[in-house]
Amino acid sequence: MIAAVIHARVGSERCKNKMLRGFAGTNLVTLALNKFSKPTNAFKLYFAAYEPELIEIGQKYDCTIIKRDKESVESERIEVIMDYMKHIPEKTVMFINACHSFLTMETLERAVEEFERTKAVSMTSVVKTHTWYYFLDGKPINFLDPTNPNTKTTEPLYEVAHAFHIFDRERFIKHHYYWAHKKDDPLLFEISEKEAIDIDTELDFAKAESFYIRENGIQKEPLQEKFARIKMLALDVDGVLTDAGMYYSENGDELKKFNTRDGMGLKMIRQIGIKQAIITGENTQIVKDRARKLKIDEVHLGIDNKIAVLESLLSKYSLAPDEVAYIGDDINDLAIFDKVGIACSVSDALDDVKQKADYVTKAKGGEGAVREVCEILLKYHNQTG
Q1: Residue 235's closest CA among 291, 191, 183?
Q2: At 384, is the pLDDT very low, low, confident or very high (cuts 50, 70, 90)?
Q3: Considering the entire predicted model, what is its pTM?
Q4: How many Cα atoms are found within 13 Å in the side-chain-facing hemisphere of 63?
Q5: Sign, CA torsion 174/175/179/180
Q6: If you average pLDDT over every residue of the chain, what do you get?
Q7: Which CATH number fits domain 223-384: 3.30.70.20, 3.40.50.1000, 3.10.20.30, 3.40.1110.10?
Q8: Is the pLDDT of residue 382 over 60?
């Protein structure tokens, strides 16, 4: 049997956090695993990942998890990136690209059937193109009749789609290539233009998500309806309730800058029954005193595992995840973003945080960002109350 591998990493230069950020109500990793972990005689599925949040998703599906090392997700060298191949016993491997959101199980099964029927050495997915190609010096590649203006009759070329590759594992480990670039090595397997859509840039992501939503009849829930359901607002402290600055008195005492308007906003949502929680890695007396003055319902300081605290709060208050909103600003907030109904980011948060957020405030942390979210909660609760 062929080994099919989906490998993923959180880092992406041209499209930040593309694997985990919201895509048509899900994310690219979940979408791929959900499709390709279904029972099939074509292949055995592996999921190769390094980051805990990716591994956590993979563990929900019928696949074998391969834990990659840090070097393999940061390297640009193919032999390092694919080092996990040594953990796969199967002779033949199919690499599946999770960035192809329209790729189907039926297509992969047909490809494997063709690969085995022809006894091919390697195979790659391609898409037929009917257009004119030139070298930079103006020499035509396939536009050989200048009197013919119709691209439909132009000799087609086949573009590698990168949706999947099938190759010999031992040859790859030894020579670091998928195929030998000769006749039928690779064997070309044509896929549809839709399945060839690859998400590599921000523009790719936006276009693919919009098309996916339309093609699948998905109705994205309006943000105001999500806000109207919220029964608890959870917050980080540094960079959210404060400006993330470090201040010290003449005596060397640590100081923090809070915003009084944030405090009034929290008071207003408390009056309509919305609970509040602080979940932070901070553990200082200043934060304790501020939380006490604000009458925060739940104060959890010195926390490394924010998800565990969130789960305990859901149980304690009999809340569903989509009844909680969370405001964060840094990478340690990304994991909890997947566990709440609305993930909010302050405007001066890290780019990865803003990319993953459902809502990005106009205000900066410590400068009214919390008040802004509170006013949105008040607005939509009043409309439905």
Answers
A1: 291
A2: low
A3: 0.67
A4: 30
A5: negative
A6: 91
A7: 3.40.50.1000
A8: yes
